[in-house]
Amino acid sequence: GGFRILRWTWRLTWVSAVAGLAYVGYGIYETRNPVDQPPPDPTKKTLVVLGTGWGSVSLLKKLDTENYNVIVVSPRNYFLFTPLLPSCTVGTIEHRSIMEPIRNFLRHKKAAVKYYEAEATKIDYEKRIVYVNDESPIKGDVSQTQVSFDMLVVGVGAENATFGIPGVREHGLFLKEVGDAQAIRNRIMDCCETATFKDQSEEERQRLLHMVVVGGGPTGVEFAGELQDFFHSDLKKWIPEIQEKFHVTLVEALPNVLPMFSKQLIDYTEKTFKEETIDIRTKTMVKNVTDKYIEAESTGPDGKKQLERIPYGLLVWATGNALRPLVKDLINQIPAQKDSRRGLAVNEYLVVKGTENVWAVGDCAVANYAPTAQVAAQEGAFLARMFNQMAKSEEIETKLTELSEVQEKAPNAEARNKAFEEIKDLQKRLRRMKGVNPFEYSHQGSLAYIGSEKAVADISWFSGNIASGGTITYFFWRSAYLSMCFSTRNRILVLMDWVKAKVFGRDVSRV
Ligand code: FAD
Ligand code: NAI
């Protein structure tokens, strides 16, 4: 008897292993071999979506594309998982692991979507036209044209703020796009190699190895943490000459870093940075940037202001968001937007105030929430649900018109009654559908990596809040971000990068 059970267990294990493999294999086959899509239907309303970031892509993910003639315009033909971008600046993660091509993604939608790799240069609200330019290096005979819309979603994100401080654009590096992370990674290595050049003076070595980060928001803090990690676990091993001089400084104008986190976690971050020997210079406002030093005004404990010159080799500028010119121009076209300073003011359905057929999501919209991926993703998903419902209710409305004709022309009372009953049913459904609730943001918490395998988290838990910092939070941070990655492919790539960096160390080549 026991032998039989064992044999059956063995067989069952085999069957489930084969079934599991077949399932995974079919999943991969399906991703690699998308089925034919019906072409976009030009008789349907044209929905133009600008951008392929958090807001726009989460809208496209949930949108039933067969209901509209959907056109996507963005200079970036991929989605970028920004929360892991700071890790790309030092090679903990390779940038392609957090990019998802928009082409693959759109190719799996139910109905085809048109994508144009271009920048929207102007929205003409009155004429319902978007002007688009191909800004990529290869241009065809046509590189400027226009796209008409019935409905428009603006999800173009924001630019880097410099507050007009001279020299920032020329000498500083930002951290927003893939190219920025690559430039930083190269610059770190260039500084290290140049610092160890034959006959370099001590003073010059010190300057070249001074890595300055301006802005103590989460971007600046996460980058400073990653950079210090890179130094501790790799750089100083391979280039021992830089050990004494390599130094990271974080400059922040306000009295503390990470203003959106709780006091306890701000203190924890500042303490960890001290242990990691990252200098935090709070109450220090950068006023001017030259190719070799920044000029900053610091306020002492006695309230006295002092101007100082801080020499640097690498300068990373992370002082938050500013409006894109496209958005500024649209604001100027709409009288109801005359007081908008930080972005397009939207109502509770994310409609751009003063319009009926333009919506805005993410960093370019102002709806009283912080400009985060979390907000942008929820806004995009909300719009998708609303557009799906709008399409369904329009379908019902058309059917209702048809049915009332049927009712009018009905040959007898029975047919009239039947049509009447159907109309009643549909009207009920329509009323239910039209009651769409306004957008409400649900905050899942804030998370940030602060270096030396530590992270901080303010997590909303039921109705309370949990603030935590440390190594366990770090594993939580890793698993949370891994699960949030765009695709299984991204998840596997990120996981492999982490293992690779742990086993072999980060790559210190400059390319
Ligand atoms: P984006 O994601 O910036 O996308 C904008 C899109 O518009 C891009 O595809 C761009 O190419 C395109 N575009 C630009 N100009 C035009 C144009 N003229 N015409 C057409 N398309 C255009 N948030 C969190 O919640 N958690 C985090 O951990 C986190 N980490 C971050 C780390 C870094 C380094 C950075 C920079 C940001 C981080 N954020 C995080 C913030 C988050 O990335 C943004 O809030 C989010 O990307 C906003 O989404 P969006 O769709 O508005 O804009
Ligand atoms: P931020 O706006 O959050 O912080 C910028 C900081 O720079 C501010 O603290 C400001 O006081 C300081 N600053 C401005 N001018 C200065 C000057 N001249 N000199 C010195 N300091 C100056 O910007 P950040 O970090 O780029 O973030 C942008 C958005 O993205 C935020 O909403 C943030 O929440 C989100 N984000 C979230 C992350 C996370 O949750 N882990 C990671 C990165 C970004």
Element layout with pairings:
Layout lengths: L1 H31 L13 E5 L3 H9 L6 E6 L3 E3 L4 H4 L10 E3 H6 L6 E4 L1 E6 L4 E5 L10 E5 L2 E4 L4 E2 L7 H4 L6 H18 L6 H7 L1 E5 L3 H21 L8 E5 L11 H13 L2 E4 L2 E6 L3 E7 L5 E7 L2 E4 L3 E2 L2 H9 L10 E2 L12 E3 L4 E2 L6 H36 L4 H22 L10 E7 L2 E8 L2 E7 H14 L3 H17 L7
Parallel strand pairs: 1-2, 1-9, 2-5, 9-20, 11-12, 11-17, 12-13, 19-21
Antiparallel strand pairs: 3-4, 6-7, 7-8, 10-18, 14-15, 15-16, 22-23, 23-24
Helix pairs in contact: 2-11, 6-7, 11-12
Bound molecules: flavin-adenine dinucleotide (FAD) and 1,4-dihydronicotinamide adenine dinucleotide.
CATH topology of the largest domain: FAD/NAD(P)-binding domain
Strand content: 15-25%
DSSP E strands, number: 24
**Large-scale geometry:** globular
The secondary-structure class comes to alpha/beta
What is the top-level CATH class of the largest domain?
Answer: Alpha Beta
- How many separate structural domains? 4
The helix content is 40-55%
- CATH architecture designation of the largest domain: 3-Layer(bba) Sandwich
